[in-house]
Amino acid sequence: MFRSGSFVADRIDPTTAAQQQPNGVDLTLSAVFEQASPGRIDQDGKSIGDRQELSADDGVFRLQPGGYIVQYGETISIPEEHVGFVYPRSSLLRNSCMLNTAVWDAGYEGKGEGLLEVHHEIEIEAGARIAQLVLAGADHEGTYDGSYQGERI
Ligand SMILES: O=c1ccn([C@H]2C[C@H](O)[C@@H](COP(=O)(O)OP(=O)(O)OP(=O)(O)O)O2)c(=O)[nH]1
């Protein structure tokens, strides 16, 4: 069962009333990066390539078509017996952009990242809402203990 927006809001810091939705909580855009060197995925391990942070122009990111790593402004705590999913705000895809996301594990805590695909030039204000986190009840063995645990908190 998916939990309500108010349940999700209690696991996100900070949150405002404007971020709370019926079924989840909106996440805001904190920082934008362009990948600058290759990463690597091995059978056992991985490394993340270098990246270059983009600066906002008068508080606005003006993004040309391409792929960008985005960081969210909120610390997310996925409670035990739950799994999290992040979806793009539909206004992004209505503007020819897409946010690619993965699974948010039980026990993870941190400010995560997503991949923003820009298919047509777009302007996004720093701090604007770009995504929504929902939480579903889930069985699991163990909790998240990987290299991203506690990132940026
Ligand atoms: O779109 C997403 C999805 C997940 N996460 C966070 C929460 C998740 O619990 C953590 C690790 O994700 P995952 O397990 O998919 O990463 P991995 O590449 O397998 O890393 P690890 O080896 O640490 O498990 O990253 C994000 O920041 N963005």
UniProtKB/TrEMBL annotation:
Could you say which EC number(s) this protein's record lists?
3.6.1.23
Q: Molecular function terms in GO for this entry?
A: dCTP deaminase activity; dUTP diphosphatase activity
List UniProt keywords, sorted A-Z.
Hydrolase, Nucleotide metabolism
InterPro entries cross-referenced by the UniProt entry: dCTP_deaminase, dUTPase-like_sf, dUTPase_trimeric
- Which GO terms fall under biological process for this protein? dUTP biosynthetic process
Q: What is this protein called?
A: dUTP diphosphatase
* Keyword Hydrolase appears in the UniProt entry: yes
